[in-house]
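Re: Re: token formats

Sure, here are both.
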Amino acid sequence: MVEGFRVNFTKLELGIGRRTLKTFVSDITIDTVASLCPRCGKPSLSTIFDREGKVYQRSECPCHDAIEDLIFSDTALYRRLEEWNRLVFPEGDAVLTQSAPGCCGTEMGSQNEPCLAVIDITNHCNFKCPICFAEAKAEGSHYFLELEVVVNMLKALLNRPVPCRSVQFSGGEPTLHPDFPKILRAARGLGFTHLQVATNGSRFVDPDYAKLCEESGLHTLYLQFDGMSDEVYLKMRGQRLLDKKIAAVRSIEQTNMRLVLVPTIMSSVNVDQVGPIFQFALEHNKFVTGISIQPAADVGRIAVTTGGAEPFNLAAMARAFGDQTGLTRFPDDWFPLNSISLLSRAIERVRNEKMHPPLSDAHCSIGTFFYVDDNNKPFCLSSFFDLDRFLRGMAKIKPHAEQGLIERQISKVRQFGQLSQCLDLRKTPPGLTFQRLLRSLDAWEDKHEGRSEGWAQRGFNGIFVAGMHFMDAHSYNLRRLRRCIIQYVTTDGQLVPFCSYNAGARLRDSEELTRIAGEVPQGGNSDHAAMAGELPMQAD
């Protein structure tokens, strides 16, 4: 996918070898990180550097000539994200709480507990998308996890040092599992507070099936949604799907579930669809709570060419969104996901209860948030609310002396109300108060609150737009991996970071072989654990 931007220094016309020509005159080193070689997958160091306002990563594998790739198309935003990393991780990785051992061990695992756990319940799919990172198939060797196995995996999440109660069922296409509604009911019965499904939406075209899933406990659909043009779906999914996508959305609008639209964006294919997708989300904002944009990573099955265009990345996403909608400033209105951890930590201190701060690396995900008024007009939150000041102010929130008297809602905690000066009343949309703004955080923390009767009067409708850029061989960074908060559950109840499962060591392959063979490994003796143990960590 990004071959056009990979430079092998031994092939330069200058004829200068790697050991002689290490950098261009304009190159400015930003960082050196532990990584994996894009060619052989062995541990190596990579240099991250600025060249003429863009960020590249160069592998320094001792076995091969250097290879470099463009990983971020705006150095200023990249450095801004680094500032957030220093704020969220003031002592580096030492601030992370070591989780219970995962199947990857220390080398390829995360030092974070998961904010969201992912369970693949099948590898069967009724699509054969040319860009599937899971390489799911419509034919061949398949598995459907037994209900008892899934229940044991769910129980393992509750037995973590900090129980994880948010789970996403994935695949393959998870709704093809004949026991999917039973799995939902089992998860609800175990006390999981947020149930998601990553889906192509094909089964949700049927309103009765959508209603069945709602009744079984499903809260949110992460719906594959690549654009508002059938030409896009022909290229990326191999078939015309727009009518079916819209039909699935209409089915969900007959329930009390919510939707997050999930477009995979590829250069020269569907970058121009970012604005139209947002417009569609706006028209359905009572049910569409957000857009989770995923720049295509060079993993799995990539059969769509980009004509040598610059790889799409989070900086390109932020620029494209502003250019196409006119609603955001670059880079001022974009914040990393981990900035929200300052709010989570404040809630922990006030309530004296353990939460799951989104302590991901700042380079994993960035986003922005919109208030939507009664006329469906969007207002970027940071255009009238000093979000930077608000989040930084969270770090100063102190524990409350009488923990037992604090009510659940954030909007009723006095210390948060003291930050009302972050709201610029001259720019605030009509009818929006700081109290209503805080109530939106109630819905963020408690998904049931945002679905309750009368919510539109107490809080407000909002849409987040975020990008999550998963790593591939060209951008692999073990520091990011150690901070992963989205983790897969294996059949033996252990955890694998998203980017270990799908890229790097590609632990998905060995796990799927185990499932296809019908073998449920015991303890930590799985094949992928042994594989990970062969990859020693190098110091950053």
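Second one below.
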Amino acid sequence: MTKAPDSTLPLAGTPFDLDESLRLAQAASERLGSSVTPGEAIQAVLDWDGTMAAQQTWSASQSIRFRQDTGDAVAREAKARLDASAAALAETRRVFLAALAALDSTLTAALAARFGEAVLERWSCELRSFDPVIGDELAEEQRLQSDAMALTGGARVEFQGESRTLPAVAAFLTSPDRETRRAAAAARWGWFAEHREALDGQFDDLVRVRHGIANKLGLGSFTELAYDRMRRTDYGPAEVARFRSAIEQHVVPLVETIRSRQAESLGLEGLSIFDEGVQGPGESPTPGGDAPWMEDRAAEMFRDVDHTAGTHLGELFDRMRADGLLDLAAREGKGAGGFCSFLPSLGMPFIFANFNGTAGDARVFTHEMGHAYQGFSSHRALELGDQRRCTSETAEIHSMSLEFLSWPWMELFFGEAAPRFRAEHLAQQIAFLPYGCAIDHFQHRVYEEPDAPALKRHAMWAEVERRYLPWRDWGDIPHGKDGAAWQAQLHVYQYPFYYIDYVLAELVALQLMELSLRDAAAAWSAYQRLCETGGSKSFRTLVRDAGLGDPFDPEVVRAVAERSSAILSELWGETSGASAG
């Protein structure tokens, strides 16, 4: 069993005086409020930004250390202190943003000219989403989210004579042996069934707290607050609903074809839930080594990308390895999932993952490196943290696109199985789109009826699952049949309304994938521009400026589905001579 890293993150152990940081932020707010010239206002913003960078580095470091070992008492205590300070940190930003909102039009215009309209619009969203009256509820929400993370992060499942983590058990869902897959699914979902009541209770508390926060802010629903929290400035729930409808119309039938082909290639009349992760007979592609081996291959890949595409990915990756900014191997007590956090005071990212020996390791790794590269590139290109920081649907373009752009180097990880990896990767990404819509639709339903009991929430999920995933067969796994499968999706607890951002970004990434097959240089150039531009523009503007289609246009969804289907057919032909349908 891999143990937790012995050393702390860079700067994680560096003394951080929260009170002094809050004082500096308050001083910057006061200077901004007394500004009479554009130069004074701009300098106040830059000073405040430096204080925010220190706060964000401290916050990210404490969160990472907790997730590295959710059972570590010291890390858990530090995370609790961070959670308790959430209200004070949010108030720091609110005071400054309120001072911004009070500036006269001349100074506001000067700030917009220097930092961009998109940043000011997102600041307005942020100002609307916090008020001191919700301080206690915000701290409670943070605590409940940490509790949910600790419950799943500490999960142990007996499987094949060993006590395993949930990610370790999930690795068996790609086994070529169907009985092994069936047993792994039963064990994994059995844990969720055993803890269903606790998971329902945690989510009920979160919905209650979030709805209460929205009410205190004068809103009728948490949904409106969630969109402001997500800093969505150029679309709202109506546009998202139309987007989901386009996915239902153009992508769901394609995924039904993919699932039918899967069943046929596996010699099955139909797929069960535990078959969905296996695209064809025989061993699914797996990396040729463990996490350190993967790091060695990645270093070679990213250096070659620098040479052939003119990026700085190799330079970044080498620095991250040297500075201890990678934690990739799964182990007991480690928080679930994978993510990338940026440490502004270092100007460097940190990648967290839970490798389990499946093809997903390569995908998770390239995904998080996409986030890392955007943060690194934007930090070098833009002067303000809130210019660099993207809204999440934009951020996911960088991560999902790098998964596809790194295809030519997959032989380093998978050898002769690389063609099959590419085909399965694309099939899985297409199949994800309806699932992402189902998660989003479910959350809209939940917050429309915040007082709904657990059983009704399960019924809500069952309904959206039938709509977006009509092929899904839970067989004799009662937890799924009862509509409780959403409990395994950590985002529902931790990051409400985030999941549709993956779907929106995937529609853009699929366009870059198709472009890369026609003109790799053009695709890398567009990708580099997107990473450097960061969050200095709104989502739809960034997509348009990159020469790509707006995902909210149903015709774009249709065209992406058609082109992706054609490419998938070609890829399947390379691996088996068969058509994807």
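The beta strands are 157-159, 162-164, 326-329, 339-343, 348-355. Confidence is low (pLDDT under 50) at residues 1-8, 577-581.
- S.
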